[in-house]
Specification:
Strand order of the largest sheet: 4-3-5-7-6
Structural class: alpha/beta
Distance between the termini: 70 Å
Number of strands: 7
Oligomer: single chain
Shape: globular
Mean pLDDT: 88
Helix content: 55-70%
Strand content: 5-15%
Number of domains: 2
Largest sheet: 5 strands, mixed
Low-confidence stretches: 518-525
Length: 545
Amino acid sequence: MRPASPHPALVFAVIFVFIFLLHAPLLRLPYFWDEAGYYVPAARDILLTRSLIPQTTVSNAHPPFVLCWLALWWKMVGFDPVVTRSAMLVAAAFSLSGIFRLAQCAANTQVATASVLCTALYSVFFTQSSMAQVDLAAAGFIFWGLSAYLENRPTAVAIWFSLAALTKETAILAPAVLAGWEIVRLFVARGTFAEAIVEQKRAAGAKRTMALLVPLVPLMAWYIYHYARTGYVFGNPEFFRYNVASTLTFARFLIAFGMRLWQTFGYLHLWVLTLGMLLAMLLPPLKDDAAERPRIAVPVQMIFLIVVVAYVIAMAVIGGAVLARYMLPAVPLVIILAVSTLWRRLRYWPAAIAFIAVAFVGACFWDPPYGFSPEDNLAYRDYILLHEDAEHFVEARHPMARVLTAWPASDELTRPWLGYITRPMQIVRIEDFSLDEVLAAADFGSNFEAALIFSTKDEPVHPVFERWRKWQELKTRYFGFHRDLPPAAVAHILRGRIVFSEERKRQWVAVIEIERVEEARNPASGAESEIAARRGAALEFAASK
């Protein structure tokens, strides 16, 4: 007999207190990157206009469940980053409770507790826990749906996976592959597909399959509504092009597939857990009262495996940015399997879990020797603090100036409610701070009086693949990689001077004042010679660097 399980409400309360205390220093941070660019503006539109279609930003067709959740909290408590991040921590605690329930169903309470600890401390999960984004919440509903699936509760399966699909459209992957798994099992066992379907209607498996197909209904209803209101189904054309149309090449798929495998098994110290699991498998199972400690049942392992494989493949096919947060439905499943293996085969498995937890905490603070997204560890905090300081400086020194900058600083300077400034400023926007973009900005330099520039890509000091030039070309071709010019180079090209600069680890920000030189000359010929001189100086300066 298994020992009595703690009540789900108690599990949720303990987890929430634990992660709330860990995130307490981060709760007042302004909004970061995609939070500021889409999710917070879209949720704020629901609060102010009660429209599920964003009004102040272009819709990308993500279902609105989390946005409505945030709008509800703002309506009850107030619009503030602390409220937003607390609301998302509630969702994170709910997701971790789902992991506990799932691991407990698959293994036992000891494995469940250790799995929750490792997941909560894993850098990507930790940083996403308080961010106003949808991937972690969708993963949480998937975990609850999987636990209901293992417990053979079809109604709960339909509810949890439907909520997952209404949180993010890609969550439909989990019930879809499980439905396919149910049909394949019946086909293999019964002989022919037609016979399998007939038998399925008379068996309990039919209820599971139908429950797994139910989430398609609310997701399709959302897309029909979105099309009726906007005229397009899967987000605006640019969003669809970037995330789907431009990703469908075989070479890109192979590269992205390798990156997804790395994000699932090795990224930011996940390799410590994976290596520990592989080494533990060389040991014989431990025995308790003359009986071997049980493994997670093979059919359950297969269920975990097909969900992980589905996400690795699907996220390699779609998604313009290969972000680690897209793999949050898969990584905790790997963690559960690895922790179960350590528990089953390693006598001092709690010490191994403690070591892994320390490694995961270290990844939160340590920037790896390869490129990564700042949102995947506490580098996002450094980014926010840098932008706060620079934008406070710009607002105080040039309150009426037109400022050259790139996204997301362009939103930070024009939307005070994002938490960076007190009133909107005028901006001139470019895509990034690569050589071509800065040269183009120099051609219309009279349109702005200052420039706020910052690192838009993480660039390791000694990157792992630095000597492999082909890798840089592939990243540029398929993933939009570019190199930002250093502040001195940008100031040289724009004929300005740096009046503010700050660095934190591998990130930097600077403010440049544009110097105006008035000369008596023929306006037409002077403009042409000025442009030519700037281009020549820029190319010479870039070559010297």
